[in-house]
Amino acid sequence: MSKLSILVARAIFPETIARLAQCFEVTANQSDDLWDRATLIEKLRGKAGVFTTGGERIDAELLAACPDLRICANMAVGYNNFDLAAMTAAGVLGTNTPDVLTETTADFGFALLLATARRLTESEHFLRAGQWNKWAFDMFAGAEVNGSTLGILGMGRIGQGIARRGAHGFGMNVIYHNRSRLDAATEAACKARYVDKATLLREADHLVLVLPYSPASHHAIGAAELAQMKPTATLVNVARGGIVDDAALAQALRERRIAAAGLDVFEGEPRVHPDLLTVPNVVLTPHIASATVRTRRAMADLAADNLINFLTQGQPKTPLNPEALAGARR
Ligand code: GLV
Predict the structure, then answer these.
(1) What are the boundaries of each domain within the chain?
(2) Residues 6 or more apart in contact with residue 118 via CB below 8 angstroms
(3) What pLDDT is recorded for position 52?
(4) Mind listing the pLDDT tens digit for each residue in 163-208?
(5) What's the fold here for domain 5-98+293-327?
(6) CA–CA dist 142, 233 (Å, integer)
(7) What does 92-119 look like in DSSP terms, one character per residue?
């Protein structure tokens, strides 16, 4: 029997390509060219599956142009690059990579919180620039982390991981807001208290955003929300660009209406709002929260498992829209 064809849209571990090649005719992109949409559609013609990494927009127009496509396997837990309703309507399955990155991403969220509160990058730049010629009592005095109030907006798996680190590791008082309240056992494990969004903004010393991006969460933190935060508070975003209004945040940081921010994700990344690059009180990282070698391998393995299991046995591991299976393309 001839093998089905798939596309791997971005560069990935050679071992992952080799594994996929045992089951499929693979078109890879190991030179990691950034294809425009027309090129992506062209490359997808005749392919039964695609391995995506979160930046490729899969929507009704693309699905109509690629009638052989049956599965889009994202190597990411977030899937706002997928129009899931359009995929379900077209009988195309979407998968993501939950669980395997939870603890690693929670580690990074906490690292960014610490770096932001304790002014790590700002002070390192000062030292590297040769400006350190004497110690001073108030040099880079930051915000206390231990014993302070940690606010979490979006209390899924990663949010819970950050809450556990704060409560158990740093003795923080954890409050959270989420679309739905967690059950009592989960709240107890995280030592977290449910509050409304206004209370979260008002009371948090450190506010961490871990909610998924959707039109409903677009600019969930804008000028009005920043104005409700303490002037001493810090804000950390490890969720998605677009959840924070970056222009409003840069202005709030410049005017010291909040103390500092730590951002791993940006509106329109890899572009970064120019105003964020000129304010000192922000720690900026290039969307690397899940980037450890072990976790990235686990994510690649899971995305590959989804392609292999679905296209060879009809059994994806982590389907996002299992209802698509009823009308699935063949
Ligand atoms: C990374 O941002 C992911 O969604 O996995």
Answers:
(1) 5-98+293-327, 102-284
(2) 140, 142, 143, 145
(3) 98
(4) 999 999 999 999 999 999 999 999 999 999 999 999 999 999 999 9
(5) Rossmann fold (3.40.50)
(6) 10
(7) -EEE---STTHHHHHHHHHHHHHHHHTT
Q: What are the E-state strand segments in the chain?
A: 5-8, 25-27, 49-52, 71-74, 93-95, 149-153, 173-177, 192-194, 206-209, 234-237, 260-263, 282-284
What CATH number has the domain spanning 102-284? 3.40.50.720
CB atoms within 10 A of CB 315: 12
- Average pLDDT on 256-283 reads 97
Q: Which of 101, 107, 210, 243 to mutate to test the pocket of ligand 1 (most atoms within 8 A of CB)?
A: 101
Residue with tokens 């158990």: 168
CA of 77 to the centre of ligand 1 (A): 5
> Is ligand 1 within 6 A of the CB of residue 212?
no
Residue 246, C-beta contacts closer than 8 angstroms, at least 6 positions apart: 263, 266, 267, 272, 273, 275, 276
User: Among positive and negative, which fits the CA dihedral 87, 268, 110, 252?
Assistant: negative
**What's the rounded Cα separation, in Å, for the pair 270 and 32?**
15
Q: Is 5-98+293-327's fold the same as 102-284's?
A: yes
Q: Which residue has its alpha carbon closest to ligand 1 atom 5?
A: 76
pTM over 0.70: yes
User: Is the distance from CB of 53 to CB of 75 less than 8 angstroms?
Assistant: yes
DSSP secondary structure letters along 18-41: HHHHHHSEEE--TT-----HHHHH
Diameter over CA atoms, the chain: 74
- What's the pLDDT score for residue 330? 81
d(CA 47, CA 65): 11
78 lines ligand 1 (CB under 6 A): yes
- State the DSSP H helix or E strand holding residue 89, giving kind and residue range, or none if neither: helix 84-90
pLDDT score, position 326: 86
How far out from the chain centre does Cα 195 lie? 23
